[in-house]
Structures are given as C-alpha cells and as structure tokens.
From TrEMBL:
Natural source organism: Opuntia streptacantha
Assigned GO CC terms: nucleus
Domain BED-type: 29-94
PROSITE patterns assigned to the protein according to its UniProt record, in alphabetical order: ZF_BED (PS50808)
Listed Pfam families: Dimer_Tnp_hAT, hAT-like_RNase-H
GO biological process: one example: post-embryonic development
InterPro entries associated with the record: hAT-like_transposase_RNase-H, HATC_C_dom, RNaseH-like_sf, Znf_BED, ZnF_BED_domain_contain, Znf_C2H2_sf
UniProt-recorded name of the protein: BED-type domain-containing protein
Keywords: DNA-binding, Metal-binding, Nucleus, Transcription, Transcription regulation, Zinc, Zinc-finger
This protein's record includes keyword Zinc: yes
Length: 683
C-alpha cells in the first residue's frame, strides 16, 4: 500500500478501503503535538511506523488492531533522545518545518498550533520558595550570609532568571531563622519520645578573637531504636579559661531541651579542659545524674583527639625524614616533565603499586599518611631518579626510608582505628572497645621489640595511650558486655592480654559497674511509697507512709539494701535480667552486619529493664568531633565572617546545618510561608 500520508491523514484509495484498521484516520484528525515532528510510514498491510522528521528513526505505531500511542514519541523529542533535535536545542536554534514530498509534489505545511515547544514546561516563579531554597543552600554549605548582596551572585541569578528581583539580606536571614525554628521543633518532638537518656559531647571551637564557642551534641536511642546524633547547643564562651565556663554551657543546653533529668554521660577532651574544669563538670554530672553511678560517666579524653596527638608525636619525632620525603614528592609534582620522567622509571622498574603521588595537606594527618605510604612504595623510583636527574638533590637516604616504613606501620594502626568514625552512621560504643584494644596491644608489642629503634620509637606513644586506655577501658568494657556476641567473655580475654596479673581486678571493675548500674535502673522502676498527711487539731502534722501495707524501714542508711532484698526476694530467688543475660551462651559472630541496638529492640520484652540500660550504654559517645574533622590536626576555627554574626544567628546556622544533613539533604516538608517566615532576628 503506497498511501500518501499528509498531516497524519491517510487518503483513501481502493487498497486502503480494504484496510479496516486505518479507517478511523479518515474521520478524526490527529491532534497530538508529536505529529509536527513525525510522519506515519506504512510498512505492510495493517502495519505502520512513526518516522522522526529530523533523525529519520522509526518507531512502532500501528500493528494489526493494536495502536502503540504517542508517549514514546514524545519522549524521543522532549527528553533529548533525538540527536538532531538535541544538537539544535544546544545551539538555541528553531528547526523550521521541512515539508515532505511525494512523487515530486510538495505537501502543504501543517496548520500552526499555539502550543509550547515539546519538553518545555512553564512554571510560575514562586518567590517565597526561592527565598527558602536560597537560605537552605546557605545553611547546608556554610556560605556567607551576605552572599545575596554580592554583585557576582546577583548577576548569576539575573542570568538564570531575569524576571527574578533579588532578595534582601534581611529576607534570607529571616528564612534561615525560620528553618532553624522548624527543625528545632521537629528535633524536640523526637527527643520527647525517646525511651531512655541522652549523653552529651562537649567541644570547643576557636576564633581569631579571644572568644571560644562551646558546641554540645546529644547522642541517644530514639523511639524506633536507632542511634541518633544531633547538635543541641552552640553558645559563645567569652572566657574559655574560666573553671565554670563550660558548666554554664551544659546547664543551658539541658534547660533549653528539657533534659535536666535525662543526662546520662558527658564526654569532653583534655585539650581544653583542665583538671579544675573536669572536677567542676564531674560535680555537675553528679548533681544532674545522681542515680547513674553518682555521675561517674564522665569521659575526659576524645578518642579522635588522642589518636591525633599520637600521630603528631610520631610525625614530630621523625620530622627530618618526613620533610625530605615531602620535598621529593613536591619536586616530582612541580612540573609535568619531571612527573613524566618519574612515571617512565616506574614503568621500567615495573613497580606493582597502583597509587599516585600526592602532596599532603598539613591540616589533615591522614593525607600525610597517604603521601608517605605511597612514596614508601615507590622509593626505588626515587632512588633511580636521584641518579638520572642532576637537579634532584634531596633524595631520602636508606635510613630515611627505614624510618618512614616504621612510621607508616604505626600511622596505619592509628588510621584504621580512627576510620570507624568516618562512617555514615555513628557507631555504638561497644565497637570502640575493639579499636582501643588493638591499638593498645600494638603499642605493647612495639615496646617489647628487639629492635631498639622501634622500642624507643613506641615507648612515648605507649605512655600517652596507656593513660587513655586505663581511663576508658571500664566504660568501654561495660559497653561491649551489652553485645550478646561478646558479653564479659571478651573483656576477660582482652584484659588478660593487656593487664596480665591485674586482669582479674579490672574485670571485676567492669562486672561490678554493670551490676551496680543495673541496680540503679531496677530501683527507678520500683513504686514510690504513698504518703498520707493528716492535719491534727494541735497544729502538728502526722505523716504516714504506705507501700503495699509494708512498714517503712528504719532510717539507718540501708534503704538501698532493702530495695535490693525486695528485688531479689520478690522474684522468688530467680535470676535478674542481667545475670540471666550474662549466663546465656554467646551469639555467633558470623554476620558483619549485626545490629546490636536492633537486637535489644527485638529482646526488650524479654529484658524490659536491661534493654533500657543497654540502650543508654551503647549510645555513650567516645569522640567529641564530627566525622569530617576526625583527621584534623587542629581544633575547629570560625572565620571572621561567622564571628561577626550575632550569637543567635550563629547558633541557628551551626545547628540547622547539622539537622538538615541528618535529614539526608531532603527538602523540608510543606509549610505555610506566610506564617513560617520569622521577621525578627534571634537576639
């Protein structure tokens, strides 16, 4: 059938009359916009295909009694699949209609329609939404708040949308505050539904001014039994050297979030906390948390910072060798010709390493480790470059390479131990027991090395880390005891290797600690005695206490003992939840994806009290800094732009940045801009 198709209409002839499936085209004109870009080409009786006028590609359209529709044809044009159409769109050219010819006759062009170009969508400009997204961008990426007044940014926005009138700083600032308040309310709702307590980390940020900034982060298990980590407070500390400056920050945080009765543990770092500061904070913790081992959960060393101090110690002790290697790497990377010569020697020597040379960033010790380890693997290339390039005059010696090799071995230990903090999900406290134990064992072995250089190299490191180990091993031991794969068995095994003859004493500390803490949780679940007050006619008040018709024990200071006896006798001498849990066999360690918090969630009916205690212990933080600052060689420092902001604005930026990141960079839920925008800055 050789019917001429014009404007999507098949003229009828004697042959076409015999084709019933083409009959509808006679009566109804095709209205889809795609027919401005496609023609219908008959292939065989009862079968036609749509042909793109620009790239000449054909698509299924009619086959027998089935019609394919036009959606796939629209996608071909609208999504830029057609290569000719895409090329012309990139050149901002409009393709004029090219009439088709049949037997030398030019067909008339189709009637023009007032339709939008396929693929283009007209969206009304929402000014309020633009302000919201601009403020959200500033919060998420730490952009300067006055960027909306900068000429370069204004020109950029005008280029994107000439009809958009640029917003003022006050409008964006108000929306930043609005984002902060909405996110804070959602976080407050989350905290209100947690089953247990909240642990805090306290860190100090510095600035070019003499003012410090305390940042407090809360760690807790939420209502869905997931470990959460959120910044709760960012407050200026005008006098960081004051003994009570950080007490005020902690009290302000607890009061702001109604957590006065929910504080469990506090973690800080000795880099900014003197002994007097630690003593004051310990007293505050005992006051705010008297029922949790009298406030003993105070960790005075940040796990990430102690690893950072170890790396600075070893890098400082080998500074001359490190400098020579760094200068050698800089020499190779300084010019393309030198780097090309280096790579040629590398190929000739057939070095198996696939790493490329990098120059380290002095603000991050992991980059120094990467530079040194890569250079150490390519040291033969450097030796050959020394003989073939007369300008290369600072080649490291064999002694230097030996020093760097030993240095990299211990840097790898520290790197692997710190890398756990860089995961997307913050690890539970039990996971740190393994890392701290491995570092301690490696350093012990180093001090016992027969190589005097290694022994002398490691001894100062061991002295620094052993202090941290002894201060934290009991708390970490209690945490790993809450892992059903290990319980106290791993504590016994590990302490025997580290403490030797003193192992039994340290194991007893852990065992007594978890039992005493469990007793505190049991005491909180027991009902309080009811108090009956009777007003007598002689003006005196008679007070009678009742608790299930039992007499109140005498005030001899042994009330805790009576609660203990009541707890064990009330259960007919049955084992407590804790002892039952510890006596059960260990879970197999086969799965690396084991979720200890999820296990306690599934077993909270079996262990109603112990599961609450486990949730609080497993959420104890051991590091005060975020994952992106784990390898930093210095403390966080605010720039001059941020320091110039008011305290309320600065807190809104820092806190909202953290909250938005934990929400996965998803857009904020729908809200009413007319009521959400806050017009007044936080004081």
């Amino acid at each position: 059938m050789n019917a001429v198709i014009e404007n999507g209409i098949v003229p009828l002839d004697n042959n076409s009359l015999a084709t019933p499936e083409l009959q509808p085209n006679k009566r109804r004109r095709k209205k889809s916009i795609v027919w401005e870009y496609f023609t219908i080409e008959p292939v065989s009786p009862g079968c036609s295909r749509a042909c793109c006028k620009q790239c000449k590609r054909t698509f299924a359209y009619i086959s027998g009694s089935k019609q394919a529709g036009t959606s796939h044809l629209k996608r071909h044009i609208a999504l830029g699949i057609c290569p000719v159409n895409r090329l012309n769109q990139e050149k901002n050219q409009v393709i004029p209609y090219t009439p088709s010819s049949q037997n030398g006759a030019v067909t008339a062009p189709p009637r023009k329609r007032c339709r939008a170009t396929p693929g283009s969508v007209t969206i009304a400009l929402d000014r309020d939404n633009c302000i919201h997204e601009m403020a959200r961008m500033i919060v998420l990426h730490d952009y300067p708040t006055d960027m909306v007044d900068q000429p370069g940014f204004i020109n950029f926005v005008q280029t994107l949308q000439p009809n958009f009138s640029m917003v003022s700083f006050n409008s964006v600032h108000s929306e930043i505050v609005g984002i902060y308040r909405r996110e804070k309310q959602m976080l407050a709702n989350l905290l209100a539904g947690i089953p247990g307590r909240v642990s805090l980390t306290l860190d100090l940020w510095t600035s070019d001014q003499t003012v410090g900034y305390a940042i407090l982060t809360g760690h807790f298990i939420d209502g869905d039994w997931r470990l959460q980590r959120r910044v709760l407070k960012f407050v200026p500390v005008p006098f960081p050297d004051s003994e009570v400056a950080f007490n005020h920050a902690v009290v302000s945080c607890l009061s702001d979030w109604n957590l006065e009765s929910k504080l469990f543990a506090l973690t800080l770092d000795q880099s900014f906390a003197s002994e007097s500061v630690v003593g004051n904070l310990r007293g505050l913790l005992s006051l705010k948390n008297p029922h949790m081992l009298n406030g003993q959960f105070l960790i005075v060393d940040c796990y990430a910072r102690i690893l950072g101090r170890l790396t600075q110690e070893v890098l400082g002790g080998t500074r001359e060798a490190v400098v020579r290697v760094r200068n050698s790497v800089k020499y190779v990377k300084a010019s393309e010709s030198c780097e090309e010569k280096f790579n040629q020697i590398r190929q000739q020597l057939q070095i198996p390493s696939t790493k490329n040379l990098v120059i380290d960033n002095l603000r991050r010790w992991d980059s120094t480790y990467e530079m040194l380890s890569t250079a150490c693997e390519l040291r033969e290339v450097f030796s050959c470059l020394d003989t073939s390039d007369s300008d290369f005059k600072e080649a490291p010696s064999m002694e230097d390479w030996k020093t760097i090799e030993i240095l990299c071995a211990y840097l790898k230990v520290f790197f692997d131990a710190a890398d756990i903090l860089t995961s997307e999900t913050y690890p539970t406290s039990d996971a740190f027991f393994h890392q701290v134990y491995r570092v301690q064992v490696e350093l012990i072995h180093g001090t016992l090395s027969e190589d005097s250089f290694i022994s002398n190299f490691v001894k100062p490191l061991y002295g620094m880390f052993d202090r941290y180990w002894r201060n934290s091993c009991v708390v970490l031991g209690m945490a790993v005891a809450m892992d059903p794969r290990y319980k106290l068995k791993l504590v016994e095994f590990s302490f025997a290797k580290v403490f030797g003859e003193e192992a039994d004493m340290w194991v007893r500390f852990v065992d007594e600690g978890i039992h005493e803490l469990y007793f505190e949780y049991i005491a909180q679940t027991l009902p309080l005695p009811s108090i009956h007050v009777e007003q007598r006619c002689d003006g005196y008040v008679k007070v009678e206490a009742h608790q299930d018709e039992a007499t109140i024990p005498p005030p001899d200071g042994l009330s805790d003992f009576d609660v203990y006896v009541s707890e064990i006798s009330g259960h007919h001498q049955t084992k407590s939840e804790l002892d039952q849990y510890l006596d059960e066999s260990l879970l197999p360690r086969g799965s690396e994806d084991f979720d200890v918090v999820e296990w306690w969630k599934l077993n909270r009916i079996k262990y109603p009290t112990l599961s609450k205690m486990a949730a609080d212990i497993l959420s104890i933080p051991v590091a005060t800094i975020s994952g992106d600052a784990v390898f930093d060689t210095g403390s966080k420092k605010l720039d001059s732009c941020r320091c110039s902001l008011r305290p309320g604005t600065l807190e809104a930026l820092v806190c909202a940045n953290n909250w938005l990141q934990y929400r996965g960079h998803q857009s904020s839920p729908a809200f009413d801009f007319s009521t959400a925008i806050v017009k007044k800055e936080i004081k």
